[in-house]
Amino acid sequence: MTLYRRFDAFDRGLHVALMVSFLGLAVSGLPLLFSESVWASRAAHALGGFQAAGMIHRISAVILIGVFLAHLGRVGKRLVIDRDFGVLWGPASMTPQPRDLRDLFNHMSWFLGLGPRPRFDRYTYWEKFDYMAVFWGMGIIGGSGLMLWFPTLFARVVPGWVFNVATLIHGEEALLAVGFIFTVHFFNTHMRPGKFPMDAVIFTGRLTEDELREERADEYDRLRAEGRLEQLAVGPAPAWVLPLARIVAVVVLTVGFAVVALIVLTLLNAPS
User: Where are the alpha helices (DSSP H) in 81-124?
Assistant: First the structure.
């Protein structure tokens, strides 16, 4: 069985750090956001108290900012040093393009039985949506979070009412991000037909030739036409990677669904 590299060690390492930091932010941030709920106080107590939850939140934020900066650094290297402008446009770019609208329309038509299954290239439209959501989140959630973390510093340049807005935005946007990641992203990645209960490619960095041909037919044909397909052929991942990935996936999925359930219950029980 031929395997091809989809993600290198740098990409996989960043995703692990992103996953850990996001979980830390969600688990520590929600008890702070819903501090008046009974479950929130119990959850904070399990973390060592609200002060400890705040510390975990800040540490996780630092990790997430580091992931974001590392990714930007790699993109900058590809643009400035490697002169690889395909990172901005084309089949290997995460930038939304006109083709994505066509793929979305064809995908919806296929769901409704009105057309054939669409062919995708390296990145699908929903993967690009997830990717751009991270940039939105870093700007909105990250920026407002930094303001609340260092109020004295930012108070020198912004009026006081901005902090009230930042508090509202930080909580509401974070709630939206947590709900999206633990439902839509989880489904698109791990629970869609053919991948349940886990898509291990982000952990192993590899996918089979059949997976590449079926899921990303245009990429497969393009790489073959360019003579680059064999350059991506790799051996199997180390034996410990997949079992560890399965354990991590179970933990993450369990925590994610528990968080979503607590959010829904809290919102349903909130006073009108």
Answer: 98-111
